[in-house]
Structure formats: structure tokens, C-alpha cells
UniProtKB/TrEMBL annotation:
Ranges in coiled-coil conformation: none
Pseudouridine synthase RsuA/RluA-like domain residues: 65-196
Superkingdom of this protein's organism: Bacteria
Keyword annotations: Isomerase, RNA-binding
Enzyme class at the top of the EC tree: isomerase
EC number: 5.4.99.-
Catalysed transformations (reactions): uridine(516) in 16S rRNA = pseudouridine(516) in 16S rRNA
Protein name: Pseudouridine synthase
Similarity section: Belongs to the pseudouridine synthase RsuA family.
Length: 238
């Protein structure tokens, strides 16, 4: 159980600066259990708290864990330069509470992207020691050959890497389609591995991280959802 003043609650949930949150409260825009609360000093229990702000319901969350079906032409970087950032696909509150992508997908890669404002979670998920498999569907420019599959499975040498990198699994899904599972998360890894093996990645999609799949989440391109405990447990290496 923990109690916080109402202005702090609103600020922690990303409604804006403390000053702005106080103004929201004093204007009567914040409702809890059907009752307007216009004193920002009111202490409220955060466990199970549901706020209504401007007629929209918000469940209090100490941290948020989000899955986004990233569309193409969005950047994961904090300061996007050529395309809009992925945060523009989420409610503004998440930018205020400093939600960030967990790792990165290239601007032209689609698929499952995790996002959170929980620093230790982001750090743990991004750690190379974690070995969380990530499943990618790659469309190749040249035909997929058995030699290509074998090379990706046995390991290819990338510039700036001390040792060859191998796919955990690699299955041909069509003339120009591969399903690749990687445990590492190196910069442009799939594209660089395909290039090092003499092909070229024409399109890339991530369908799964650990045991969490886009299909099970039921997300369509551009959609997002909160991840609850059971779904987060699927991200822990087995
Ligand atoms: N590998 C890549 O090359 N790009 C991505 O976006 C993800 C993995």
C-alpha cells in the first residue's frame, strides 16, 4: 500500500508538469470513484487506483510495459531524424513518463517492439547475457539456398565482431523467405548477417521475443497494448 498526493500521482502517470497537474486538479478535471477531487494535496492510495481525467479512465501503474506492433517508417531513436519516432504511436502520457524502446528495430523493420519506463527492466532485457531468442521473418533479394541457410547456422563473420555470429535456428519459408532466430541483438544483425552470407535483406519483420508473439497479442500494425505479469514472464529465458 502506498499513498501519494494527487498532483504527484498525475505527474507520475505522465499528465505533465507538477504545475500543469495541479491546474488540472483545481479545474475539476480529475475524478476518482465518481467524485471530483479538486485539492491537489489529497493523499490517495495508488494500489488499484483508477483515475478519470478529461472523461478518460487511467489505471495507476508504477511502471508501464508495452508491446507495439511497429510499422515501417518509424524510428526507435530518441531523436528521430528522417521519420517520426515510435513514441508518436502511443498516448502523449508515455512520452512524459519517459517510456523508451527496449532495444531497437530499424526504421524499415516491422513487428514486435517492447517499450517501458522501467530502467532496470530495459537494461535487463537489452543485456547480451540474457540470451532471449528473437524470431525474424526476412525477405531476401536473392533466392534462398541451402548454402545460405547452412552459413547462417554455422556462423558468419561481421566487421567489428570478434567471432562469427550464428543463428540459433534458420528455416527456409519460401523462395525469398527465411525465418531466423537470433539470441544476440547486435546492430543491424539480420541484415549484416545476410549481407555477409552473400544475399541482401529486402524486408524484415520481428514476430516474437522469447515466448511472446505478436499473434497471441492480437495486435495489428500500429497498435499497442500493456503487458501484464503473465506476458512479461514469457520474456524470461527458459
Ligand atoms: N536485425 C536487423 O538487421 N534489423 C533490425 O531491425 C533487427 C534485427
Amino acid at each position: 500500500m502506498s499513498k501519494l498526493s494527487l498532483d504527484r500521482v498525475l505527474q507520475s502517470q505522465g499528465f505533465g508538469t507538477r504545475k500543469y497537474c495541479r491546474a488540472l486538479i483545481e479545474d475539476g478535471d480529475v475524478v476518482i470513484n465518481g467524485e471530483v477531487h479538486d485539492n491537489y494535496k489529497t493523499l490517495v492510495e495508488t494500489d488499484g487506483l483508477v483515475l478519470t481525467v478529461f472523461d478518460e479512465e487511467w489505471t495507476y501503474r508504477e511502471h508501464v510495459y508495452i508491446a507495439l506492433y511497429k510499422p515501417s517508417n518509424f524510428e526507435c531513436s530518441r531523436k528521430p531524424s528522417h521519420h517520426p519516432g515510435v513514441l508518436t504511436l502511443l498516448p502523449e502520457q508515455f512520452t512524459w513518463r519517459d517510456v523508451q524502446p527496449v532495444g531497437r528495430l530499424d526504421h524499415d523493420t516491422t513487428g514486435l517492439l517492447l517499450m517501458s519506463d522501467d530502467g532496470p527492466f530495459i537494461h535487463a532485457q537489452s543485456s547480451p547475457k540474457r540470451h532471449i531468442p528473437k524470431v525474424y521473418q526476412a525477405t531476401t533479394q536473392e533466392h534462398v539456398t541451402q548454402t545460405l541457410v547452412d552459413q547462417l547456422l554455422s556462423g558468419v563473420q561481421l566487421h567489428d565482431e570478434p567471432a562469427p555470429l550464428a543463428a540459433q535456428s534458420c528455416v527456409q519459408r519460401g523462395d525469398h523467405q527465411l525465418e531466423i532466430v537470433l539470441e544476440q541483438g547486435k546492430y543491424h544483425q539480420v541484415k549484416r548477417m545476410l549481407a555477409a552470407a552473400g544475399n541482401h535483406c529486402a524486408a524484415l519483420h520481428r514476430s516474437q521475443i522469447g515466448g511472446l508473439t505478436l499473434e497471441a497479442l492480437g495486435l495489428k500494425e500500429g497498435e499497442w497494448c500493456y503487458l501484464e505479469r503473465a506476458q512479461l514472464e514469457l520474456l524470461v529465458p527458459g
